[in-house]
Specification:
The chain is an alpha+beta fold. The protein has a single domain, classed as Nucleoside Triphosphate Pyrophosphohydrolase (Alpha-Beta Complex). The protein is built from three helices and seven strands; from the N terminus they run ββββαββαβα. The longest helix has 18 residues. It is globular, with a radius of gyration of 17 Å.
Amino acid sequence: MRNYYGAENKVLVAVDCIIFGFDQEEEVLKLLLVKRDIPPELGKWSLMGGFMLIDETLDDAAIRVLHDLTGLRDIYMEQLRVFSKVNRDPVARTLSVAYFALINIGDHDKHLIRNYSAKWFAINRKPDLIFDHDQMVDGAIRRLRRRAASNPIGFELLPEKFTMRQL
């Protein structure tokens, strides 16, 4: 009898967080990116991500990754989809589950952002991203537009007081 869980190739499971925020001064939607500090693609821009731990659910892993970068909890976050191309990560076979989050751009922990060499980019001026992260961002923008047309999720991006123009 074959050992079903035995010597088969293993697959890593990662979560990547697409973090949107609204910049009130520039009145533009922005994306929080990190400068990668490990190879491959050292020094290039990336989504904030991490591997799911053995004792976590996917949602727990995404919450942890988001909290590690922003210091925030209890924010709007939604699973986008799984990215599973065989060679999407050149180091190891990795499935990535993309999540997008909406935060008030002024609420995050600026010290954490600096520690990760993170930076906000207007979505129409973002740099090229590693692996398939551009596809993840494009999918999240499409989903966000659909959701915002029928749900009040856009309020997550705004401060407590906002103008009608910002809305």
